[in-house]
Protein: Acyl-coenzyme A thioesterase PaaI, contains HGG motif
Amino acid sequence: MDLKTHLAIDRTLCGDVVDLEEGYAKVVLKTTKQMQADTKGLVHGGFTFGAADFAAMAAVNNPNVVLVAAEVKFLAPVVVGDEVVFEAHILQREGKKAKVKVSGSVGGKEVFQGTMQTYTPTTHILDRS
Structure:
């Protein structure tokens, strides 16, 4: 299956899609010094969230999909050099809306859990005609 959404995203900051099926995506984020938030190597949660968001968008896999809400938990710290594996599964679809469960892990240890609410408009959200 080919990725149809977020094609211009910077994969060095949001991860790479390594598996993609109907209603499912796996994204791997290789954390770098650029993501570092402090002198101890803590990765800023925004990068973790960004990769989780990307995984949810890939699971829906429509060029127009957008995130409209998220409920997340950061379960453990991520440090520079960690490889975070995100798996996203669509839990529910109702018309143009989808609820996507995303989990992230480092070496088998869960570091992130989230539920993402998505919406897929008929046209790109920035098309204002």
The chain has a mean pLDDT of 97. Helices lie at 11-14, 45-60. The CA atoms of residues 25 and 58 lie 6 Å apart. The chain has one domain: 11-119.
